[in-house]
Amino acid sequence: MGDWTGHFSRFRAAAPDRINLAAHSHHDWPDVTLAAQEAAWSDAARLAGDKWNLVFGKLIPAVQAGIARHLHLPDPATIAFAPNTHEFLRRLLSCVPHDRVPRVLVTSAEFHTARRQLTRLAEDGLVILDEVAAEPFATLQERLAAAISRGGQDLIFISQVLFSSGATTGDLAALVCAVPSRETLVAIDGYHGYLALPTDLSGVADRAFYMSGGYKYAMSGEGCCFMHCPPGFGPRPRDTGWFSAFGALAAPTGSSIGYPADGGRFLGATFDPSGLYRMEAVLGWLGEQHIDAAIIHDHALALMRQFLVGLDALGRDDLTSGHLITPLHDSAAHGNFLAFRTPLAGALETALAGLGIATDHRGDVLRFGFGVALNNGDVDAALDRMQRLAMQA
Predict the structure, then answer these.
(1) Confidence at residue 122, expressed as pLDDT on a 0 to 100 scale
(2) Domain stop point among 233, 253, 286
(3) Across the chain, what does the average pLDDT equal?
């Protein structure tokens, strides 16, 4: 097993007693991001408003190319950027037909970004929400494919990895290919999949949107999200900002609003580019270290298995491998975090924080995340501290 913790010395030294097992949420950033952050400031001081020539002329193409390599996308120019994925959701919704109430298909386990917005729109009758139950996970892909195949949706919005369980929605290409109508927009929320699971979008790059960002597994922090935009789908989002005017094509007859044909049609307006500096640095570092999503996933799997063996030995009835929401049997069907369902999830998060172990919970689900900023010694140290929890069981 590799050990890359030396490349995270700044984060580790800033909180030396913390063991970050909330790595499915806020990941540690590698040291290279500090110089990138400083470069963003220096470029702004040196160039002022002219910094946007550098951002659009050099920085964005470099980040697009790095993301495209990891996702096997044929054309980096299909990638757009925004401060958060909620902006992309809004723009996708602005592309659905407006002459009827649009239908949106989701699972019951989508992240709050989508769930809150779509549920609120459904309350006012602005969308019809079709929901596929996430559990049982063993039949999720089959049931999703069946719901998709029936057709009638204007937007299909599904997660690659479900944030509340670590379960995956299975073969993305098979799900995309099940969509019967070319009029249906298909969007994959890859926030828990990008740089966590090996992801090859080459077979669906001409059909499916894919969004993710830097806050989690991309280790780049806030404010740098991206979306791959398949050519021809959503050519003129009604939710649009002035950055989409850069390189805009001629507008249709009777309209003065033109859009570029590439991912730039989904751009918004002015944003803080410092996150893209950090993301470029992380992508460069991953390349130098020859790290890809397969290596990250294998590393996380090894740490998760080590952690589960140790948990079973602690003797807590609610934190054993038997209480995982998604058992760690099929590595391709599991993300890089462990989720336990327990009524004590909130109390356990608080107790673990008191031991210097960062985790998080959502309702009755307690989550432990793993990535390349952790090593075997971190897992052993966490388990050693957690013996105090076992004594309180």
Answers:
(1) 97
(2) 286
(3) 94
Look at the chain and report how many structural domains it folds into: 2
Q: Closest by alpha carbon to 195, among 61, 23, 366?
A: 23
Residue 149 pLDDT exceeds 90: yes
Phi and psi dihedrals of 146, rounded to 5? -65, -45
Element (H, E) at 367: strand 365-369
**Residue 302 and residue 390: Cα distance in Å, rounded?**
23
- Whether 256 contacts 160, CB under 8 Å: no
State the SS3 of 124-191: CCCCEEEEECCCCHHHHHHHHHHHHHCCCCCEEEEECECCCCCEECCCHHHHHHCCCCCCCEEEEECC
Query: Are residues 148 and 260 located together in one domain of the fold?
Result: yes
**243 in the same domain as 104:** yes
Residue that terminates a domain, selected from 253, 286, 319: 286
3-state SS assignment for residue 22 = strand
Residues 350 and 272 in one domain: no
In 3D, which of 70, 375, 382 has the Cα closest to residue 228? Answer: 70
**How many other CB atoms are found less than 10 A from the CB of residue 322?**
10
220 and 258 share one domain = yes
Indicate if 95 and 232 belong to the same structural domain. Answer: yes
pLDDT value of residue 114? 94
User: Residue 225: which domain range?
Assistant: 33-286
198: CATH: 3.40.640.10
Show Cβ contacts of residue 338 under 8 Å, excluding neighbours closer than 6 positions.
166, 304, 307, 308, 324, 328, 367, 368, 369, 370
CATH number for the domain including 305? 3.90.1150.10
Q: What percent of the chain has pLDDT over 90?
A: 86
Question: Is pLDDT at 328 greater than 80 in this prediction?
Answer: yes
| Single-letter code of the amino acid located at 226 | F
Q: For the segment 342-354, what is each residue's pLDDT rounded down to a tens digit?
A: 999 999 999 999 9
Higher pLDDT, 24 or 156: 156
